[in-house]
Amino acid sequence: MSTATATHDDHHDHGPAKGLMRWVTTTNHKDIGTLYLLFALVMFFIGGAMAMVIRAELFQPGMQLVDPQFFNSMTTVHALVMIFGAVMPAFTGLANWLIPMMIGAPDMALPRMNNFSFWILPFAFTLLLSTFFMAGGGPAGGWTLYPPLSLQMGDGFPFLIFAIHLAGISSIMGSINVVVTILNMRPPGMTLMKMPLFVWTWLITAYLLIATMPVLAGAVTMLLTDKFVGTSFFSAAGGGDPVMFQHIFWFFGHPEVYILILPAFGIVSAIVPTFARKPLFGYSSMVYATASIAFLSFIVWAHHMFTVGMPVVGELFFMYATMMIAVPTGVKVFNWVSTMWKGSMTFETPMLFAVGFIIMFTIGGFSGLMLAIAPADFQYHDTYFVVAHFHYVLVTGAVYSIMAAAYYWLPKWTGNMYDEKLGKMHFWISTVSVNVLFFPQHFLGLAGMPRRIPDYSIQFTDWNMISSIGGFVFGFSQLMFAYMVYKTIKGGEKATDQVWEGADGLEWTLSSPPPYHSFTDAPEIK
Amino acid sequence: MHKLAGIFTAYLGAAFGSAQADWALNMRQGVTTTSQSVYDLHMIIFWVCCVIGVVVFGAMIYSMLYHRKSKGAVAAQFHESTTMEILWTVVPIVILVGMAIPATSTLLAMEDSSEADMTIKVTGIQWKWKYDYVDGEGAGVSFVSSLHPDHNEARMVGSGADLTKFGDSYLMEVDNPLVIPTGKKVRFLLTAADVIHSWWVPDLGWKKDAIPGFVNEAWTLVEEPGVYRGKCAELCGKDHGFMPIVVVAKAPDDYAKWVAEQMGAAEAEAASADREWTKDELMAKGEQVYNTNCAACHQPNGQGLPPTFPSIVGSPIATGDAAAHIGLVMNGKPGTAMAAYRDVLKDADMAAVLTFQRNAWGNDAGIIQPAAIKAAR
A424, A488, A71: which is closest to B157 by C-alpha? Predict the structure, then answer.
């Protein structure tokens, strides 16, 4: 950061403080973005370690390593950590770093709240992980926390609920900051329809978060009162309804799915044009498609619940509405392909991850379409087919976009180029292994293997073994990514301001690394 | 090391040498018209996705091969086309409508459980199924179906059991299978006693949640006699992976014979509850019942996994007042994993298991006769 302060001598009193206190008290969007991203990386490895336990136990039939209760807590906490601890904070970190630089603002609009919303997270996840050391162990009722099962948890239950509350508060504050920044901090001439798609997708994501996080908070609070205060929201014996929890949860949960993928769309829409050296195809249709997906996400929640015994008219409505999502999602994929079409492409690591994203996210989209068909879902539901589906959209979708973003913007953030050879190796090993990991899970689900089981019948052995091998390779190959990040921060070939030949956008007009306060004067918008 | 190598070899043999349906890729077609139409629907969508995939990925791959800078490609600068945007909005909608039509008719047929020949109530209990034949031939038959004891023993952590001896039915074998007649429309009423379960036999073509306090409906009509296996599909706690379902479809004659046997057994059971039992009889039966119903939580050695699953050894309940002990097992303990066994265990079974708990592992608190249970109901 010494270069940053040197180029801004008149502002040096606003430069970063020294030592640990810089990170504790920082209100700078880049510092906070870095904190979010590093936190997400740590959580990615913690959640990944749990996945390794799961795949190790499932390597062969019979119970070898862990008892069933601990296995269930592994699947449960793996999901909670990956969703709330890794993917969401990673996107928030990217928003912090990039939104001010992309719209031409000096910083986020609400810097103190920004600091607070990050620093809640380590406490939230300490609470969550501490439940493993309490009587009764960690949460083991699935990340969806369905009652009555979730209410059977031991002493850790209130810690789990408060961890979710804290993570939710953090998300809401982060989202408010994003909305306020985008709507108020744009320089003259930066109209909404001139904003980069990453900014657009985050604006819509932020609204989704603000709309749904309180719903989740309400649902888990009702669980808490059912457990400790004697209410019966979700107990039929007291006049309540366990299925009502599922409706409330998925009213949050389905928009949440898009919270995890819309920013990814924005990232890919930034990377593909850069490496195709051609403007994004159908910018305005991309914006409208994002908005349509966001709208539809509120009216499809019960497709997670086709088997709970809804009236047939309800099942038909949710089936049709869910199928409709394929239309705007398809528009996005077609637009990306058209952007590539007749371009002048090169395949540096960010482009590899972006292309990998498009192909594998689309595969996840296909299985999603299959799952939308209610009668077929009666077979697919709660099997490994579903596990394969959502890992295709979340790992090779959301996580791949985050990796792509890291490779794409790290040279801008650090001023150093990453090691291209290492990056490509990371991509190819990850992509081969992640498909060995998740593709066979389609077969397992179709053959009849339910999800969330620690042991299985012998006919499922072969694909589980293959899947586990893929899992171990994928898991350990992510250490390459961590090493790449470390190496790039430490040094490397100096990056130019433009970094990429085809890069277009305000962030590329700043120096690499950018000054501590991004745009102190409003840039001119073409 | 030698033992490990042995397990490994046996295991590899199981994985690669067996002639069973390993390496299965696709959905099971099943044995009912429902499962067949679900399979057909699945294949239609699958092929539609494949065609779309070939077109989209084909265009992408062509572009990646020929529109690259290293091949001297110069970037065009087009960036919109309203015609294309309309085209790729409308065409998918048409395809989706085409998929929705067969999906809708299949769904409507699946949800129509009217005009059933008989009705079976299915109750999910952590971690077993209870079946009550409420209507039609066999009405009155009632039993609990749990994971087969041999499989239960083999699935304990580190049991080192040779699983290949179970063939394809490992973890898919029960002590008392559900028996249904072929050629009859059987309606199922599904509910649960504690948490949400889901009753799923892939060959029948559907799964349906069993929810405490609510009753769901589903139906099946199996034409071919045979054994059809499935599992609980909704996470229901520690032993979710260990509550299989086995459906035996029998020809009407065989089914009638089976019903007669069940009725006879139920009478004998009822009669046995009225006589005085010896302590040895109670202990022997009690150990059996304990291993099926209690050992999953309270452990085979009775020491439980405190604090969630308390120890029975020397516990104030198992060594104290008999009435309190009966009440606890009969009604369960709300807010904990302790379920109510009123409808799960018959008089003699409950008396036996209580006696076992009160006299095993150094406990010494006297015996409980079936008559006492009958009186306490």
Answer: A71
- The verdict on B145 and B208 lying in the same domain is yes
Q: What interface predicted TM-score (ipTM) does this complex get?
A: 0.90
Give residues with Cβ within 8 angstroms of A25, minimum separation 6: A17, A115
The answer to whether residues B252 and B316 belong to one domain is no
pTM of the model: 0.90
Chain B segment 86-105 residues within 8 A of A by beta carbon are 88-89, 92-93, 96, 99-100, 103-104
Sequence letter at residue B309:
F
CATH number, domain at B127?
Answer: 2.60.40.420
B128 shares its domain with B174: yes
Q: Which residue range(s) make up the domain with B237? A: 118-156+167-269
Q: Are residues B122 and B265 in the same domain?
A: yes
CB A509 within 8 A of CB A497: yes
Q: For residue A407, which amino acid is it? A: Y
Distances (CA, A) of A244 to A142, A225, A232, A250, B236: 17, 15, 11, 10, 17
Question: Which of B26, B44, B239, B240 to mutate to test binding with chain A, by most A CBs within 10 Å of its CB?
Answer: B240
Residue B45 in domain: yes
Residue of B nearest to A343 (CA): B75
Q: Where are the domains of chain A?
A: 22-509
Based on the fold, state whether residues B131 and B50 are members of the same structural domain.
Answer: no
Q: Same domain for B132 and B259?
A: yes
- Which residues of A are annotated as catalytic? 78, 107, 143, 170-171, 254, 256, 258, 269, 303-304, 329, 332, 451
Give the helix, strand, coil percentages of chain B, each rounded to 5.
45, 20, 35
Q: B350 and B316 in one domain?
A: yes
From the CA of B221, how many Å to the nearest CA of chain A?
A: 17
Total residue length of chain A: 526
| Interchain proximity B41–A375, CB inside 8 Å | yes
Task: Please indicate, yes or no, if residue B3 is contained in any of the structural domains.
Answer: no
- Give the pairing of strands B118-125 and B244-250: unpaired
Which residues have CB under 8 Å from B69's CB, separation 6+?
A277, A344, A345, A346
How many domains are there within chain B?
A: 3
Shortest alpha-carbon distance between residue B217 and chain A (Å): 8
Residues B136 and B259 in one domain: yes
Secondary structure of residue B200 in the 3-state scheme: strand
DSSP bridge pairs for A416: A494
- The overall longest dimension of chain A from CA atoms, in Å, is 71
Neighboring chain A residues of B59 at a CB cutoff of 8 Å: 337, 341
**Separation CA A401–CA A358 (nearest Å):** 9
As a three-state string, the secondary structure of A375-443 is HHHHHHCCEHHHHHHHHHHHHHHHHHHHHHHHHHHHHHHHCECCCHHHHHHHHHHHHHHHHHHHHHHHH
Question: What's the N-to-C CA distance of chain B in angstroms?
Answer: 55
Q: What CATH architecture applies to the domain A22-509?
A: Up-down Bundle (1.20)
Q: Each residue's pLDDT tens digit in chain A (526 positions)?
A: 344 444 444 444 456 777 888 899 999 999 999 999 999 999 999 999 999 999 999 999 999 999 999 999 999 999 999 999 999 999 999 999 999 999 999 999 999 999 999 999 999 999 999 999 998 899 999 999 999 999 999 899 999 999 999 999 999 999 999 999 999 999 999 999 999 999 999 999 999 999 999 999 999 999 999 999 999 999 998 899 999 999 999 999 999 999 999 999 999 999 999 999 999 999 999 999 999 999 999 999 999 999 999 999 999 999 999 999 999 999 999 999 999 999 999 999 999 999 999 999 999 999 999 999 999 999 999 999 999 999 999 999 999 999 999 999 999 999 999 999 999 999 999 999 999 999 999 999 999 999 999 999 999 999 999 999 999 999 999 999 999 999 999 988 999 999 999 999 999 999 999 999 999 888 988 7
